[in-house]
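re: the backbone from monday

yeah here it is again, tokenized this time
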């Protein structure tokens, strides 16, 4: 598995629009074949950084997923919404693989 981390720089005055965008991806991404971990909007600290995180089997699966997403009505609509409202100022994608597995058992803290 590889995990795609998308770092968004958003207009802080349009955070609500980004949250609508994130909820739409919450429907479209799983339907198109990726394992959505989640979209994260600013809460504390930076008001301009947001993230989207999902996993796919490999880069070939990613390309097939992207084609399905481009053909999906909600996927197209969401992309057009972002272009029209201009709440995303910059978007960077990084693909990472899990390096810490297998994980150890956690300790109980009192």
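seq for it, each position gets an aa:
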């Amino acid at each position: 598995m590889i995990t795609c981390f998308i770092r968004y720089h958003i207009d802080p005055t349009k955070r609500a629009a980004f949250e609508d965008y994130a909820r739409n991806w919450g429907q479209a991404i799983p339907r198109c074949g990726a394992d959505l971990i989640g979209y994260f909007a600013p809460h504390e600290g930076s008001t301009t950084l947001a993230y989207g995180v999902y996993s796919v089997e490999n880069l070939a699966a990613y390309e097939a997923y992207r084609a399905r997403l481009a053909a999906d009505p909600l996927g197209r609509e969401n992309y057009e919404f972002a272009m029209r409202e201009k709440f995303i100022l910059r978007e960077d994608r990084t693909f990472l693989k899990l390096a810490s597995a297998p994980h150890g058992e956690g300790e109980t803290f009192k």
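The first helix runs from residue 15 to 31. The longest strand covers residues 2-10.
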